[in-house]
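Bumping my old thread because nobody answered last time. Still need a sequence for this structure:
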């Protein structure tokens, strides 16, 4: 664990600044949380992150409301989550590829799930995989040839409003 603080140095650093130009730098410091060694600090930190804060061990990118929302949106990658966050959707989680992490399977049993994928062949392959291994309720696709990470707020809303049931998506993909 560390902390940092921004510092401005003026007169005590020679030959870096002058009376008009000064130096800005960041100082990094270490914290000590008690009488234990680095090995223990790492295991304590990991336990805190995964058990107390309930951050996924799979390091999946997710919006801040993924655990509290009744409905979630599963997307392909981190950039998709960021685009949805930028446009006000805080309940998205990324699968990071075509293999579906166990966390997604667990979440899909407890929540209403919409899979929101790119409008291309890869998106269709991900839908097939997701519907086979997770409890997906709805499917939505970005416009043809576009990726979720690049579409506008209006296109996101239109795509999500046009979602279809997972059963319909399976039939369409055959």
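Sorry it took so long. Here it is:
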């Amino acid at each position: 664990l560390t902390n940092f603080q921004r510092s401005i140095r003026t007169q005590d650093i020679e030959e870096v600044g002058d009376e008009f130009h000064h130096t800005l730098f960041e100082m990094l410091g270490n914290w000590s949380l008690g009488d234990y060694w680095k090995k223990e600090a790492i295991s304590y930190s990991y336990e805190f992150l995964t058990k107390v804060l309930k951050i996924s061990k799979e390091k999946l990118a997710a919006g801040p409301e993924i655990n509290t929302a009744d409905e979630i949106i599963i997307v392909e990658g981190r950039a998709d989550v960021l685009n949805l966050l930028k446009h006000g959707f805080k309940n998205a989680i990324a699968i990071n590829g075509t293999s579906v992490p166990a966390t997604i399977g667990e979440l899909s049993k407890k929540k209403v799930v919409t899979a929101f994928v790119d409008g291309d062949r890869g998106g269709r392959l991900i839908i097939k995989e997701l519907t086979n291994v997770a409890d997906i309720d709805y499917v939505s696709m970005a416009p043809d040839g576009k990726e979720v990470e690049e579409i506008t707020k209006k296109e996101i809303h239109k795509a999500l409003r046009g979602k279809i049931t997972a059963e319909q998506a399976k039939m369409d993909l055959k």
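The CA atoms of residues 52 and 85 lie 24 Å apart. Let me know if any region looks off to you.
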